[in-house]
């Protein structure tokens, strides 16, 4: 059976995931070596070495979740423990966390620092997928089937927002909305939800206007004005975006060559995290951009395909939720560095430097790989057994049950 499981893995997902991680490792070294020496006084390979350790831990996590049966996440005790842990972690950040990139979203755990909001993304995917899979019999009943998970989603996003980590809050909320749209609710139920959300938004408008200065911070306004008028504020709020444009424009079609970026020499403040794609565009040109966007697009589309083909509602929503996380986070990062949307400080999946980010993404990819494995196993072997088994006239053959 183990050999059959190995044959059933989707190795295209695994291959693209590993390639993007290794490609990101090379670009982290290239983009961070000057900054590590000039800004921090570290060795040139400091961030590269740290990311190697992060990747080793992440690969181990990926392998574990790639073989751990995803249906175990549907267990009630596990779901309760996971949701309580997520909420406590966010409260701990508010009380004991420290500020990084203008947000109190980090907390020290022994010799490492973690960002709980990253782990909450996966916990929200698992929780919403499990709850709505369990509620399929009454999925269109607002009070019993629809609203309780949404209340949890909104509460978690609120806790992330007040850190403040607007980027992670938006990503988490949009992931949740994607799973809700794919949960099997009727269009009429979704319209009722939209009407309730619209009504609540109108009720909160006076409060938002009254507390506007508290809700929208100076840092938020700076990012908006920098987005709207980057060249007019090139030495202030628009500094990052203008230098990102210069990096992209300098790269052109062919790029200036690996390791030859000018913008990483102190012009782009975060060349190895938020703006690593600008360095890729400058050094490797359009080819480097196509490699990254192509790899990310493949994982997103493959995740959606697996979700559509999976006959288990829980596995289907897990796959689509993970695909949406990759797609939304990639769009927000690329949109920020290219001027399509305001800069949010969100990292580029698999490419940017960051321990919490690569660990969470690897866990998510492990779960997606496991869903794909069970889907393929059911299609290859269970279906084959059903076809080969003689059908007794007195016992009807129920294909639906066999696939389940």
Summarize the structure.
Peptidoglycan polymerase that is essential for cell division. With 404 residues, the chain is mainly alpha-helical.
Number of strands: 3
* Average pLDDT metric: 85
Task: Supply the number of helical segments.
Answer: 15
**Main sheet attributes: strand count, strand direction, barrel closure:** 3 strands, antiparallel
Provide the succession of SSEs.
Answer: HHHHEEEHHHHHHHHHHH
The proportion of strand residues reads under 5%
Envelope shape: globular
Rg for CA atoms: 23 Å
Strands across the major sheet, in which order? 1-2-3
N-to-C span? 18 Å
Oligomerization state: single chain
Helix content: over 70%
Number of domains: 1
Poorly predicted runs: 386-404
Based on helices, strands and strand pairing, what is the structural class? Answer: mainly alpha
Q: How would you portray this structure in words?
A:
With 404 residues, the chain is mainly α. The protein has one domain. Helix content is 70%, strand content 3%. The protein contains 15 helices and 3 strands. It has a 3-stranded antiparallel β-sheet, covered by helices on one side. Helix 1 packs across helix 14 and helix 2 runs antiparallel to helix 12. The longest helix is centred in the C-terminal third of the chain and has 34 residues. The protein starts with a helix and ends with a helix. The C terminus is likely disordered. Its EC number is 2.4.99.28. Keywords: Cell shape, Glycosyltransferase, Membrane, Peptidoglycan synthesis, Transferase, Transmembrane, Transmembrane helix. It is found in: Membrane. Its main location: membrane. It holds the Pfam family FTSW_RODA_SPOVE.
């Amino acid at each position: 059976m183990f050999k059959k499981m190995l044959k059933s893995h989707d190795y295209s997902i695994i291959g693209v995931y590993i390639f993007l991680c290794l490609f990101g490792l090379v670009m982290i070294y290239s983009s961070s070596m000057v900054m590590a020496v000039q800004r921090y006084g570290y060795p040139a390979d400091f961030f590269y070495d740290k990311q190697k350790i992060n990747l080793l831990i992440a690969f181990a996590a990926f392998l574990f979740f790639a073989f751990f049966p995803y249906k175990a996440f549907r267990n009630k005790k596990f779901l309760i423990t996971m949701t309580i842990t997520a909420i406590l972690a966010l409260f701990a950040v508010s009380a004991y966390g420290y500020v990084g990139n203008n947000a109190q979203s980090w907390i020290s755990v022994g010799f490492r620092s973690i960002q709980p909001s990253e782990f909450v993304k996966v916990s929200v995917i698992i929780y919403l997928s499990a709850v709505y899979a369990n509620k399929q019999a009454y999925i269109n009943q607002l009070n019993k089937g629809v609203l309780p998970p949404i209340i949890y989603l909104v509460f978690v996003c609120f806790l992330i927002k007040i850190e403040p980590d607007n980027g992670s809050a938006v990503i988490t909320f949009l992931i949740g909305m994607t799973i809700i749209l794919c949960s099997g609710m009727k269009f009429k139920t979704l319209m009722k939800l939209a009407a309730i959300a619209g009504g609540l938004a109108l009720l909160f408008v006076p409060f938002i206007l009254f507390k506007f200065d508290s809700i929208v911070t100076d840092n938020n306004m700076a990012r908006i004005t920098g987005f709207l008028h980057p060249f007019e504020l090139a030495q202030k709020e628009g500094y990052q975006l203008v230098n990102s444009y210069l990096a992209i424009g300098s790269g052109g079609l062919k790029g200036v060559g690996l390791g030859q970026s000018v913008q990483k020499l102190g012009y782009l403040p975060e060349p190895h995290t938020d703006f690593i794609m600008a360095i890729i565009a400058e050094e490797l040109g359009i080819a480097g951009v196509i490699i990254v966007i192509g790899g990310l697009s493949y994982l997103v589309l493959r995740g959606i395909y697996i979700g559509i083909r999976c006959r288990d509602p829980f596995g289907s929503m897990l796959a689509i939720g993970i695909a949406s996380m990759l797609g939304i986070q990639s769009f927000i990062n690329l949109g920020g560095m290219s001027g399509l949307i305001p800069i949010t400080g969100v990292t580029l999946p698999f490419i940017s430097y960051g321990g919490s980010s690569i660990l969470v993404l690897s866990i998510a990819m492990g779960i997606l790989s496991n869903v794909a494995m069970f889907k393929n196993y059911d299609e290859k072997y269970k279906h084959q057994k059903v076809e080969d088994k003689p059908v007794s006239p007195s016992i009807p053959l129920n294909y639906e049950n066999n696939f389940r």
